[in-house]
Amino acid sequence: MSLSGKTAIVTGSNSGIGLGCARELARAGADVVLNSFTDRDEDHKLAEDMAKEFGVKVRYIKADMSKGDECRALVEKAGGCDILVNNAGIQFVSPIEEFPVEKWNAIIAINLTSSFHTIAAALPGMREKGWGRIVNIASAHGLTASPFKSAYIAAKHGIVGLTKTVALEAAGKGVTCNAICPGYVLTPLVEAQIPEQMKVHNMDRETVIREVMLDRQPSRQFATVEEIGGTAVFLCSDAAAQITGTTISVDGGWTAM
Asked: Are residues 105 and 64 both part of a single domain?
């Protein structure tokens, strides 16, 4: 599954699932553009270290995914791309009647609308080359729902619909578009929630993970960022050339119920 000679942009990729995808794409030989809304020394150091580790070109480009012009500028600054992984996302939990409008707008902008802008900017170049891979990081919540997450679930359902539409528009041009739907993934953000959940439920670490956090995930195991990244690499490979417009669940059986 060598991706040597390909350039991949991964949005929201200085930590978590985005970083996991970026690392696995680099491991497969792709040059990588990392991205987030910050512009810190450690962001650029992350790119330098990844380049040394995998022997590929890695750059960090700042772009705020809540702003459409910056989403499109990211693709332009990168010089186009062969692989686009739309991963950037945020979350907020609240009953819908109390949901802050500014939080709704931010989640829709970052989790959904940013993908519209990056795809619109990247797709013409992919069509011209006759090869391209678009991988949208959706969620189990792109296929099902939970209470108090109206904006996130609306956005992730939207990502699934956008994925299908882009796949149809790009069909026959050597370009595929698919969505990965993770369940609970052990990221630094999730890891940080475990101690608090232990206190709230008066449980030890393993019990709170199994009985509370992974209650809807039948495997009772977190997915890893490496597993999500490996799925992205597969979707970018020649083996997946006829897989387009679909969702791949990496959720330990969550959406099978």
From this structure: yes
